[in-house]
Amino acid sequence: MPQIGLVSAVNLRVQGNSAYLWSSRSSLGTDSQDGCSQRNSLCFGGSDSMSHRLKIRNPHSITRRLAKDFRPLKVVCIDYPRPELDNTVNYLEAAFLSSSFRSSPRPTKPLEIVIAGAGLGGLSTAKYLADAGHKPILLEARDVLGGKVAAWKDDDGDWYETGLHIFFGAYPNMQNLFGELGINDRLQWKEHSMIFAMPNKPGEFSRFDFPEALPAPLNGILAILKNNEMLTWPEKFKFAIGLLPAMLGGQSYVEAQDGISVKDWMRKQGVPDRVTDEVFIAMSKALNFINPDELSMQCILIALNRFLQEKHGSKMAFLDGNPPERLCMPIVEHIESKGGQVRLNSRIKKIELNEDGSVKCFILNDGSTIEGDAFVFATPVDIFKLLLPEDWKEIPYFQKLEKLVGVPVINVHIWFDRKLKNTSDNLLFSRSPLLSVYADMSVTCKEYYDPNKSMLELVFAPAEEWVSRSDSEIIDATMKELAKLFPDEISADQSKAKILKYHVVKTPRSVYKTVPGCEPCRPLQRSPVEGFYLAGDYTKQKYLASMEGAVLSGKFCAQAIVQDYELLVGRSQRKLAETSVV
């Protein structure tokens, strides 16, 4: 597969062994951050404690050897500089919201807010409440941080994750969060391309390359126009005509498309079915793990809106290691530095109510109780519905949640006995009926880097028919699909590349299923029950079911609590007075 820009495709042989080199584009030809000269070594660039070094005695001899001994292509991993995101409208809007917590008047009596769920929604809520001077108490049922970005280390010291997580340039609140924590260097930015497998040409890929020199939306338009392998010119023209109402109608038009599926919208706009088959099956599965006959068109239009209106909106980055340590722990450390608390292994058994229907406390599985001035549920919607108090079930705000249901998804990790060549230092769209997106994490992620063996991480979706099946069945089905993506290197019977080990992570209820008609059911963060709030990607915010949506929901939840400060203080004082009388 051809590589473009600084992601070179060469075979380097150092003392008889293939060397996979990883460097930062911004440090080429200069001294790296730890002071090593690029003339004498190539280093991992742009990160702190994750750095590793590969020494090369004589790079000139390598050049001479390459000229006479050129081998099959292999990927050299080179990260790209962080794109210029800080001056975009959405980034500045997100930065202003973040600053509002730091600049808000310091509370005379900081509130103690009990938050259930240490996923990104709960962590974000706690982080911004702490910034506003309050004391969050964050409770996590499991022994691991992150919720839907959780990960675990196996007995060999290798990590396996809940999902394959991509950080887009069009995630302004997430990008602000990285900056606020001082960990921008933990994102590994990749070449600005979208790469799709070609099912009718096993082992081949088609690219949408976004030129750096052009602004949005011209860079996206040119990327589409230059790709002649997936869509014909008549199909491109009909698709463009079909999109005109969305371009002209703006956000109000986008929101109005909640009630129609992607497939039905395309047909209504006269877009050929082949466009849906070639592009939007893969895109639908990547966005919500379901096919376009189920997905609401609003979801696709929101993504296209961000990708086409922001120059770096579709540019992707990988985290440089496992999410609990590299992303979640810095948030926890920030919360604790401000006087907040984060407690693992604190599963909530019951939401105990007062006589007036407000929350009295959370009762944990061990029988202990946690009281506070306000309460937040930042778990997935399905978990909250299981714990919804009987007295609340007739309230319309909570009744609407019944339509919001998490979608099943499976994340597959396979370690092979060799380095696969037909891959890329980027996210790849498989266009497989069983698989969504995948990446060779031994190439794309510094902590998972391995110069000799590949580790493929793959999203198995749609997964509804598979989530109850055995891991071995899922691996067998995955290998059959991989044989089409790597025909020269992988076979279903493992007669070529052999599996060293695998991990299968099943999430029976992941992000909410973004089907037509669910938008009116998404709740605001402030509930009608005084002192009770919700956070999570299913709550009302414009980024739908995503990491960005979870972070933004946490900010909105924290904002609502800060705005309700006087009300919550008065409520706590009344409760104290009533207790004193008794």
Automatic annotation (TrEMBL):
Residues 120-561 form the Amine oxidase domain. Pathway: Carotenoid biosynthesis; lycopene biosynthesis. GO terms for cellular component: chloroplast; chromoplast; membrane. The keyword Nuclease does not apply. It catalyses: 2 a plastoquinone + 15-cis-phytoene = 9,9',15-tri-cis-zeta-carotene + 2 a plastoquinol. GO terms for biological process: carotene biosynthetic process; carotenoid biosynthetic process. Its main location: plastid. InterPro entries: Amino_oxidase, FAD/NAD-bd_sf, Phytoene_desaturase, Zeta_carotene_desat/Oxidored. Keywords: Carotenoid biosynthesis, Chloroplast, Chromoplast, Membrane, Oxidoreductase, Plastid. Its EC number is 1.3.5.5. It is a peripheral membrane protein. It is found in: Plastid, Chloroplast; Plastid, Chromoplast; Membrane. Its cofactor is FAD. One of its GO terms (molecular function) is phytoene dehydrogenase activity. The keyword GTP-binding does not apply. It is an enzyme of class 1 (oxidoreductase). Belongs to the carotenoid/retinoid oxidoreductase family. Homotetramer. This is Phytoene dehydrogenase. It comes from Capsicum annuum.
